[in-house]
């Protein structure tokens, strides 16, 4: 029998894929132009955007952010996405492992190392769960899937709209600090689409967090997802800090993954030039997977990033980080 967490995870994937559940508000990337270099003085073929993430080499600075696990079909989704990450040299995160705390045999729906032995792999748990479970148990989630890091997700917006959601964020920062201190792997804290601002980024850095995924507004809206699932305090469809604003606020505080509404490699390249170290996305990967277009989506995304590097005269990621921009 599926428990509540399992059926919720299944609803989320189905609703997002079928209905979209995207913000009307934009990320802000449409107001950022990379400045064209008419004389790039490099060959497109010499552009190399490889980098290291969680101490592992990847070919492109792209993270497929955590989405699923914990119900039968999720096993296939995680394995397909992870295998693509292995094939194209990207990083990958599984979705919340809460379901397997409640039902340990669900671990098989998160395990991907057989198809993705070399990639940076992230475990995932909600910040609320850290208050409930000891660090040893959280560590066993990481170990059970041989992950390189733990992504702790912040989803206050989603929980407050969800009829059965947790609404007491008191003590979450202290719980994050404890996990950072005792866990066997580094911690990345991510939002889920409503964004992280500078004040929060600084507090997380002080707590011992090593990376941030700012997951700003402009892509998947978790309030819309929850409205599609049922009742909730109305009016919060557009709540959240746009992705570009999050990058500008958080750059320099910690190594950054920029995500939330990134749909093309051009937006990914803009995110890097704005100050992120990696770009990431969830929705377009699951959408492409379900449409049987995952390979072509990733190939196009990578080519777009490479062409942006070429047309700004950037041979590598550190050049792309310094690419000139104009705000429209
Ligand atoms: C179907 C789906 C399920 C998700 N489940 C999780 C999850 O379990 N844990 C998590 O940290 N984020 C989860 N997310 C949030 C994403 O990782 C991401 O932060 C957010 O969707 C914004 O990125 P996007 O606009 O590219 O989708 C999920 C996203 C999608 C689309």
Automatic annotation (TrEMBL):
Record carries keyword Cytoplasm: yes
Any one GO cellular component localisation term in the record: cytoplasm
Positions of the FMN-dependent dehydrogenase domain: 176-324
Cofactor: FMN; Mg(2+); NADPH
Main location class: cytoplasm
Subcellular location: Cytoplasm
Keyword Cytoplasm (UniProt): yes
Keyword field: Cytoplasm, Flavoprotein, FMN, Isomerase, Isoprene biosynthesis, Magnesium, Metal-binding, NADP
A GO BP entry: isoprenoid biosynthetic process
GO MF terms, alphabetically ordered: FMN binding; isopentenyl-diphosphate delta-isomerase activity; magnesium ion binding; NADPH binding; oxidoreductase activity
This enzyme's EC code(s): 5.3.3.2
UniProt binding sites for FMN: 65-68, 96, 124, 190, 220, 261-263, 282-283
Reactions the enzyme catalyzes: isopentenyl diphosphate = dimethylallyl diphosphate
Residues that, per the record, bind substrate: 8-9, 96-98, 158
Pfam families with a match to the protein in the record: FMN_dh (PF01070)
Binding site residues for Mg(2+): 159
Subunit text: Homooctamer. Dimer of tetramers.
Functional description taken from the UniProt entry: Involved in the biosynthesis of isoprenoids. Catalyzes the 1,3-allylic rearrangement of the homoallylic substrate isopentenyl (IPP) to its allylic isomer, dimethylallyl diphosphate (DMAPP).
Annotated family: Belongs to the IPP isomerase type 2 family.
PANTHER family given in the database record: ISOPENTENYL-DIPHOSPHATE DELTA-ISOMERASE
Name assigned to this protein: Isopentenyl-diphosphate delta-isomerase
Organism of derivation: Candidatus Bilamarchaeum dharawalense
Gene: fni
């Amino acid at each position: 029998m599926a428990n509540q967490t399992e059926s919720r995870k299944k609803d989320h994937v189905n609703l997002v894929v079928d209905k979209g559940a995207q913000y009307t508000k934009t990320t802000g990337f449409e107001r950022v132009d990379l400045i064209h270099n008419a004389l790039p003085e490099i060959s497109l073929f010499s552009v190399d955007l490889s980098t290291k993430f969680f101490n592992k080499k990847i070919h492109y600075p792209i993270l497929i952010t955590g989405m699923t696990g914990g119900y039968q079909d999720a096993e296939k989704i995680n394995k397909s996405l992870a295998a693509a990450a292995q094939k194209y040299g990207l990083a990958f995160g599984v979705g919340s492992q809460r379901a397997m705390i409640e039902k340990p045999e669900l671990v098989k729906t998160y395990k991907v190392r057989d198809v993705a032995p070399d990639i940076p792999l992230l475990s995932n748990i909600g910040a609320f769960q850290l208050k409930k479970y000891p660090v040893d148990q959280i560590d066993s989630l990481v170990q059970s899937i041989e992950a390189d890091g733990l992504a702790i997700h912040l989803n206050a917006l989603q929980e407050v709209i969800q009829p059965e959601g947790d609404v007491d964020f008191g003590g979450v920062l202290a719980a994050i600090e404890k996990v950072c201190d005792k866990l066997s792997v580094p911690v990345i804290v991510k939002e889920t689409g409503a964004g992280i601002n500078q004040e929060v980024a600084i507090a997380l850095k002080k707590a011992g967090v090593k990376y941030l995924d700012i997951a700003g507004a402009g892509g998947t809206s978790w309030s819309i997802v929850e409205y599609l699932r049922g009742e909730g305090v109305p009016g919060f469809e557009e709540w959240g800090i746009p992705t570009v604003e999050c990058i500008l606020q958080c750059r320099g505080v910690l190594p950054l993954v920029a995500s939330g509404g990134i749909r093309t490699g051009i937006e990914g390249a803009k995110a890097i030039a704005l100050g992120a170290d990696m770009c990431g996305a969830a929705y377009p990967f699951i959408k492409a997977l379900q449409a049987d277009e995952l390979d072509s989506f990733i190939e196009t995304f990578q080519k777009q990033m490479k062409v942006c590097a070429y047309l700004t005269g950037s041979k590598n990621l550190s050049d792309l980080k310094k690419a000139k921009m104009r705000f429209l």
